[in-house]
Amino acid sequence: MSPRIVRAFFMVVSALLGFATLLQLPSPSTFHNDPSQQVDWSRFAYTQYATDRSYLCNSLMIFESLHRLGSKADRVLVYPSRFLMSETDRSPEARLLRYARDQYAVKLKPTEVILKGGGGAPWSKSYTKLLAFNHTEYDRILNLDSDATLLQTMDELFLLPPAPVAMPLAYWLDPKDRVFTSGLMLIQPSPAEFSRVMDEINDTPSDVYDMEIMNKFYGDSALVVPHRPYLLLTGEFRSQNHQAYLGDTGESWDAEKILETTKYLHFSDWPLPKPWVPATQHVIEQTQPACEFDPATGQQDCHVRELWLGIYEDFMIRRQGICGTALQDEDESS
């Protein structure tokens, strides 16, 4: 199966499942005692935090998915104030921001990026996502890391029982350590919590990740979001042992079935760089999933490899289509 065929399968499944999710979105009574309660979706928001042009494009892709899949919650993009100085600003960043606002109904919020230490490492800017605690105009904020593909909406998470923070456990780490991942965070904004988190950032050494701060504060109290179906690492397709992901279900690994039910696919295939960063053919060949011998056919079965390659190809095609169109549209209208 060629990567092109895999990509077609990937996109069709994503669209169909996204539509099915909307049709079967849990009702408020699933999470609330009052079955007559109406959901005011304006009280909830998906947030993105873009600190450079590459991640701004990634955020645009997340918002495109939310728009296409019909998410009902607000969409908020926090960005460095220097990205959009005025409506006449013609920088690529300014054009991408206006496209997000005009095409995907994204609310733009300029801010100052929180940096620690030298600010050179990519994660050093990730503290900025913790500004979500200060968005007190919303009852709940769902922050998603943008180095990912959103396959289905997660609107139903906004209706979970009240908790300051809800996150999935990092299933790829030792379960005995009970470590949460900050790649997906459902946050109840609070001035008190915001102040507490900001104090911790200011007092924290520069080599401490935002995920460590979240685990320090909420590791014992966070509501657990099940990683199935809400979070899957692309590296799982390369793994030879899937017990950590599958759990004690007795279920066998089925790559296509897992992908069909996954809502959020996070790119993590070290040493392969993120999909928008060029990689050498050697690194790709060394990193890609291995083919397996199929005794039934007497041939090598490479369908998981093709699926994995198709995921990366799909990301790059969409990236060019979405961000390229955003820049081109403004050029043509000017």
UniProtKB/TrEMBL annotation:
GO terms for molecular function: transferase activity. Keywords: Signal, Transferase. It comes from the Eukaryota. Residues 1-31 form the signal peptide. This is Nucleotide-diphospho-sugar transferase.
